[in-house]
Design a protein that fits this description.
The complex is a heterodimer of chains A (343) and B (290). Chain A is mainly alpha-helical and 343 residues long. The termini of chain B are far apart. Classes of the chains: A mainly alpha (343), B mainly alpha (290).
Chain lengths: 343, 290
């Protein structure tokens, strides 16, 4: 069933078929295939390249860089939620591991920052692997609560181990230096985080159409059916959980490096909720949706600062409104509207 | 021994509040399958409204009564304007809606009230009662008695009245309940109202001991949820036992192990329960039909 769905989703792009006629049938197939696989990546690349032309100041670069960082974490979570159908309300915990890895590594162990980033991602993967096996046996509300509890535990550890993490006030983070080049400034981080998000999106797209990705989506439709088809359900879930933890960890590292300071809030409950909201808001199972969801939830608080104390009130209202009226998320709802189907 | 008694009493007092929050969770969950993350906000509304109404010159008992009415109205509004329109949404969407509601209510409280911590005068003064070397605040006994009265009243209402039976029927099978002529919208709305009222009463009772502020709701909701989980989600006696047990565990962990990691206890409990006995202490195992 999942195989058929891929064919339905493959758009018949007019330009590529014109191109194809000119280059003969074999290249036509190749071009169409490439066009299909790369369309979202190309679209994202164009967005990343074109958007800065409309930026009046470096402040906009800063906000946009944050959008890509959160989009990266949301994308990882979307693989877990949107494609494999497993919810996690504790993903900010992995962002916290990544963030504190780049803060603690250079400060306490004298490791280079880039190595700390990789170590943080590896640690997140190991933690996800160890916790994932028992947690992912659970379903529905139970899974939601278990991941929530796990994320909160990490946040409590980050808050309490003040000797390592600076406690509630957090700690400062040394700049990222790559081969003698210091990565600093909002504009540099814009391109850096944009490129990383692009790479993450390309990887995610590749995964979705691979056999492992199909197994993942089969589990989303029905675990029992997937098992009957010979899919190792536990292993497939665990793999995507580990992968999504790595995405979140890298995003957390970027956030820490970009801000130059980190507090345990990065791993807090509200952060986890924010990530889930980005996924659901943008659209579960939509790569572009992760970017749209992150953009809305990063830009909105910035745009609402003029409301001062009414900010949370409005944020809560918007969150409720979107969940009630745009249940399928922004990108899938728009796509459905274009196809003329009711969402 | 004195330490032990002291920890046990403070644990039971906080546990009684967790139990009431968990009971509210259970009521709403049974009636509508919604995990209501705004449950802790009812506790906050109850406490803060009483503080501010009393400060405005309204006598304390009347202020408390009004606070419960306000919380009940908020609970009904939550159902009518957020949950009811989202009928048929996925579990995750519903969770996100209640989290949105909780952020909204916290934001509203911050605007309507303020960001400071507030207290209420205890009902019977604050001279501690000496008992076996432990000092017990009279208000602790008020909290425990209040929780007991609520549980007994709720149980009587559910088991002994026709409307209570309708609520039970709705929880058991919504479609079947509708087929026998029960207005399930009313029973679900009722469970939102009652669990809001229970939360508000818990908030008023505990404010003299733990103080209240606009942001106490989130952690309370999570711990009440942990308690409901511990007892077995969907089971009302389980919610009460789970709440008391969680309060005790927390108090002993804070007393004997580490007060820093007090808040971690609830979540370690959740994880251990889920791994070892996912249906909770009193819950029934369910089999998924394909």
């Amino acid at each position: 069933m999942s195989v058929r769905r891929i064919d339905e989703r493959r758009p018949a792009v007019k330009e590529t078929s014109l191109l194809g006629r000119r280059f003969g049938s074999w290249s036509a197939v190749a071009v169409r295939f490439a066009a299909y696989r790369l369309t979202p990546v190309l679209a994202i690349a164009v967005v990343i390249a074109v958007v800065p032309m409309f930026f009046p100041s470096t402040y906009y670069y800063r906000v946009a860089a944050l959008v890509y960082v959160f989009a990266l974490a949301a994308l990882g979570l979307n693989l877990l939620m949107g494609f494999a159908g497993q919810v996690s309300l504790g993903h900010a915990g992995f962002m916290g591991i990544g963030a504190f890895a780049v803060a603690i590594g250079p400060t306490h162990f004298g490791l280079p920052t880039w190595l700390s980033l990789i170590a943080g991602a590896a640690l997140s993967a190991v933690v996800a692997f160890l916790v994932g096996r028992p947690i992912l046996r659970l379903r529905g509300h139970y899974l939601a609560v278990a991941t929530l509890g796990f994320g909160l535990l990490l946040a409590i550890v980050f808050t309490n181990e003040a000797a390592w993490t600076g406690g509630p006030d957090g700690m400062s983070v040394r700049r990222l230096v790559l081969i003698g080049w210091a990565v600093r400034g909002s504009e540099t981080w814009y391109w850096f985080s944009g490129a990383t998000f692009l790479a993450g999106a390309a990887l995610a797209l590749n995964l979705i159409d691979s056999p492992a990705g199909r197994a993942m989506r089969a589990i989303h439709d029905s675990e029992t059916a997937a098992r009957v088809l010979g899919i190792d359900v536990a292993r497939t879930k665990l793999r995507v959980f580990v992968l999504s933890a790595i995405y979140a960890s890298v995003a957390g590292s970027y956030l820490a490096l970009f801000n130059g300071h980190i507090t345990p809030d990065v791993a807090g409950f509200l952060r986890s909720i924010e990530l889930v909201a980005m996924v659901v808001l943008g659209g579960m199972g939509s790569i572009a949706g992760s970017l749209v969801g992150a953009a809305v939830l990063v830009v909105l608080p910035q745009a609402l600062t003029f409301l001062h104390e009414y900010e949370h009130l409005v944020l809560g209202l918007i969150l409720m409104g979107v969940m009630i009226f745009l249940r399928n998320g922004i990108v899938p709802s728009i796509a459905a509207a274009f196809k003329g189907r009711p969402s | 021994m004195a330490d032990f008694l002291q920890f046990a009493f403070s644990g039971l007092t906080v546990g009684a509040v967790y139990a009431l929050v968990a009971l509210g969770f259970t009521l709403i969950y049974n009636a509508s399958d919604v995990i209501n993350f705004a449950q802790g906000e009812f506790v906050m509304i109850g406490g803060l409204s009483t503080v501010f109404l009393a400060a405005a010159g309204i006598p304390l008992p009347l202020a408390a009564l009004l606070a419960v009415v306000i919380a009940t109205a908020v609970g009904l509004a939550l159902y009518r304007f957020a949950i009811e329109p989202a009928r048929g949404a996925s579990a995750v969407s519903l969770i996100m809606i209640t989290i949105g509601a909780s952020i909204f209510l916290r934001g509203a409280a911050q605007v309507i009230f303020d960001k400071r911590y507030h207290s209420l005068p205890p009902l019977f003064g604050d001279t501690p009662i000496r008992f076996g070397g432990a000092a017990i605040l009279p208000q602790s006994l008020v909290v425990l008695a209040g929780a007991l009265v609520i549980v007994v009243l709720l149980w009587t209402f559910i088991e002994r009245t026709l409307f209570g039976k309708a609520v039970l029927a709705t929880a058991a099978n919504k479609l079947a309940a509708r087929l026998v002529g029960i207005d399930t919208r009313r029973t679900v709305g009722f469970s939102f109202a009652v669990s809001a009222a229970i939360g508000a009463i818990a908030g008023i009772l505990i404010t003299p001991i733990t103080l209240t502020s606009y942001n106490i709701g989130t952690l309370l909701a999570l711990k009440g949820f942990a308690a409901a989980m511990l007892g077995g989600i969907g089971s009302a006696p389980g919610a009460v036992i789970g709440g008391l047990l969680l309060g005790l565990l927390e108090a002993f962990a804070a007393g004997y192990l580490s007060s820093q990691y007090k808040d971690a206890v609830a979540f370690i409990v959740i994880l251990v329960v889920l791994f070892a006995r996912p249906q909770g202490l009193l819950g029934r195992a369910t089999v998924e039909r394909v």
